[in-house]
Amino acid sequence: MRLGEKEEVTCEAATTALRKAVRLNRAIQASDGHWAAENAGPMFFTPPLIIILHISGAINTILTAEHKMELLRYIYLHQNDDGGWGFYIGGHSIMFGSVLSYIALRLLGEGLDDGEDGAMTKARKWILDNGDQTKAWRKGVQQVKRYGLSGEAMTSAKNEASASRSNSIHVQNAAKMWRYCRETYMPMSYLYGRKYHGPITDLVKSLRQEIHTKPYEEIDWNKARHDCCKSLQMMCWWAENPDGDEFKHHLARVPDYLWLAEDGMKMQSFGSQIWDTTLATQAIIASNMPDEYGDSLRKAHFYIKESQIKENPTGDFTSMYRHFTKGGWTFSDRDHGWAVSDCTAESLKCLLILSQMPLEIVGEKANIERLYDAVNVLLYLQVQHTYHI
Q1: Is domain 11-37+272-381 in CATH 1.50.10.20, yes or no?
Q2: Which residues does the UniProt record annotate as the domain Squalene cyclase N-terminal (predicted)?
Q3: What is the pTM of this model?
């Protein structure tokens, strides 16, 4: 409902707008009770997926022609006018985003001169005019190295070995890394230790010439690695055993990460299902419009209850620098496995509020033991001697 600048905001008008908002949220709720949303934006998510699918030979199994068409559309759409790509959508061109995006386009079948208005030619020109792929950020160098596009000496052994240093003597030990960095640097270290790279195909040989300013064989990789100062767990499992169940399990979950929107298809990070669902649930309840609830709260209640982590990580998880997780909620879904304090708090809040509402509207209450488990997680995550979590 729209009001003109000079129109009075009446109770009736506000109520009508609120009612429409509740109805819209009900309409876009998924059948299992969550609210879906895109969780993407960085330009370094999609290319590594394409690289590992290409190396493993699974690209045509996982990606149909329609998948590839939408992936191409997404990458081209976010190419900057100067020919490069940014760290994220709309960001200024940098070597990291540009090299990975260019390689992804070539692996998806684009030729040297393809793309509207010479897009591939412009991309290649930007890369070469700005120093070539050896100037890419460390994570980008790791990706192109595993595809066979840079020398092994490109990475400093000191940096990659730091992940295995003793907890007591090195700040970059896995126990002290931010979890998202750990998810990147541990696979990078493994692949470095294996000295792994994919098959050297004709396309790899061509790319070696396309993204470097001098012949590949003449590059001093020991020197070049300092220009950038300098990941994929999926690639680790492929390097370990191409026919192993672990890699096959990764392949099975690839579709979960692909998101199609108006700008094409991209690989996104893990979702934001719990975060969005708990906030949407609280907003609908706050509307105080029982006649508009329908079955939305019942479905949301079911999803929140089912998304709680029911068990701790397997094995001796403390020795692997993992916290206990039983009773918590993640940012996305239960399979994600990382308990998050605010998502746990919002989920617990929803369950407490819903437990006070009629069963015919919200369904069965959560098991009381599950609520205790959630409180236990929150108390554990609270920083000692402060009120912060």
Answers
A1: yes
A2: 20-134
A3: 0.79
